[in-house]
Structure formats: C-alpha cells, structure tokens
C-alpha cells in the first residue's frame, strides 16, 4: 500500500458542511500504541480536507490548531469540516475527526486574506543547511509503528533535547491522489516531538503531545521539511516541543506541542 488513507466517500450538505469517510492503512500506524494512528498522518488527512474545503481566491491558511482528544484508533474515520466564523478577510474553519464513535481530533483553522506586503517583509528565523549533503539519520526509525518507517530523515545536528532534522516521504496521503507540498510538509511537522527526545532509550518517561499548533508565515514548497526543534520538560509533569519549520527555500513557520510526561510501564 502506497498511501496512508483510502477515501470511502465525501458528501456536502445544503449548508456547505463537508463530511468525508476514510480508512487508514497500516502506513499510518503510530509509535506509542500498535492500535493507534500517528498524529502526523492524522494531521495530513485533516489538511487534505482543509485544502479542498470551499477555496477562496486571495485567502490562505495561516494557522492550524489541533487538539488530540485521545488515542487515534486505526481503521475507519470521519472528518467533518465547516465554517464557524465567516468573513471577507478572515474565516475560522472547524474540522472534527471521529472514529469508533468517539471524537479523536478537533482542528480550528484561520484562513486569512493575502496581500502584497513584500515592501515590509522580514524574518528573524534564519535559514539552515539544506538536506542534500547531510547523512541519513536513523534515529526516527528506532520508534515503533509503521509510519516512521515511511519517512526518510537526514541530520548532522542532533542531540538530546535539540537539533535539526530534515524529513521526506514518497507515500501519498490518499490512495490515487497526488499530495501537495502543504499537506506533505505540514503533516510531518508533528514529528518534531520524536526527533530530539531529552532522554536516552529506553525511555523512563513517555511524552505524548496533546496538541499541535502550526503557524505559517508563508506556504511551504517542495518535498523536504526541516524541523529545527527544541524539547523541554518542566518539573511538574508537563513539557513542550517547539520548532522552526523550513523547506529548502528557507523558514516558513513555527509549531508548538504541549506534552504530558508519564512514567513508562515496565
């Protein structure tokens, strides 16, 4: 199977609400539990629905905020997407992923008006070394689950808690459909939490993320995602993974993931 999901059907009601049904393949299998989907492809399939949802000229996605309600079970899922705040210059879109009768992920997305601001454009995030000459990084393949095995990684700057890792995949998000750079790269941004863990293996503490916040000051391009990540643990059971996101043209946004730190079972 060369995709993470198979589309079953998609319907649009009279109010413009879109409901799509998919079934996940084993390529979407997560790292913490063999019966779960990885949050990366779950993010990607939501982004694939957002990309198709009521597109408007001179508007683009600026922020996606995804909250994870619990284990994202493998198998059939339903994604419902609707506008909850319409507007001429900004609009708020809600996407809800359900499976096995439960809400799995809820995403709130701001789509924003674009304009020519090239005369005042400027970034403080700096470009980083491109992946072409970097060695293969096998660290991500130490994770369990099929999803990480579908991703190629390269790095020459990685240690516990901090590093730069480039990621790419040739697996399509949906069987029989081409995958845009936006869907492919934003999907993989969830992997920031697993590429620079503060602990050596085997882990004494688990650190699953409860959310994924993505801010885009431009749309990503190409097939390589560079994640310049920092992972920090507080002293009371809560941590944070923070990243600058790059493509081969330079930085394009940032992401944050809040972590729940839990002792690993023997």
TrEMBL record:
Organism: Acinetobacter wuhouensis
InterPro entries noted in UniProt: ACOT8-like_C (IPR049450), Acyl-CoA_hotdog (IPR042171), HotDog_dom_sf (IPR029069), TesB_ACOT8-like_N (IPR049449)
Domain of life of the organism encoding this protein: Bacteria
Protein name: Thioesterase family protein
Sequence ranges assigned to domain Acyl-CoA thioesterase-like C-terminal in this UniProt record: 145-259
Domain called Acyl-CoA thioesterase-like N-terminal HotDog: residue spans: 30-111
């Amino acid at each position: 199977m060369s995709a993470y999901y198979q589309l079953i059907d998609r319907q649009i009601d009279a109010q413009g609400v879109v409901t799509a049904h998919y079934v996940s393949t084993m390529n979407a299998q997560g790292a913490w539990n063999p019966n779960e989907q990885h949050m990366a492809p779950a993010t990607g399939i939501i982004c694939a629905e957002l990309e198709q949802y009521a597109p408007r000229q001179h508007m683009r996605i600026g922020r996606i905020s995804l909250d994870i309600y619990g284990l994202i079970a493998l198998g059939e899922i339903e994604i419902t997407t609707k506008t909850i705040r319409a507007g001429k210059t900004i609009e708020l879109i809600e996407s809800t992923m359900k499976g096995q009768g439960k809400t799995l992920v809820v995403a709130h997305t701001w789509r924003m008006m674009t304009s020519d601001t090239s005369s005042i454009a400027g970034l403080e995030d700096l470009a980083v070394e491109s992946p072409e000459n970097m060695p293969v990084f096998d660290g991500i393949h130490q994770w369990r689950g099929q999803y990480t095995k579908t991703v190629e990684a390269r790095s020459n700057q990685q240690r516990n808690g901090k590093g730069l890792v480039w990621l790419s995949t040739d697996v399509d998000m949906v069987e029989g459909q081409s995958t845009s750079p936006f869907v492919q790269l934003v999907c993989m941004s969830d992997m920031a939490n697993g590429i620079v863990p503060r602990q050596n293996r085997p882990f004494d503490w688990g650190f699953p993320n409860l959310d994924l916040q993505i801010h885009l000051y431009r749309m990503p391009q190409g097939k390589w995602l560079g994640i310049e990540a920092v992972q920090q643990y507080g002293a009371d059971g809560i941590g944070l993974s923070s990243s600058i996101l790059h493509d081969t043209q330079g930085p394009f946004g940032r992401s944050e993931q809040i972590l729940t730190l839990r002792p690993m079972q023997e």
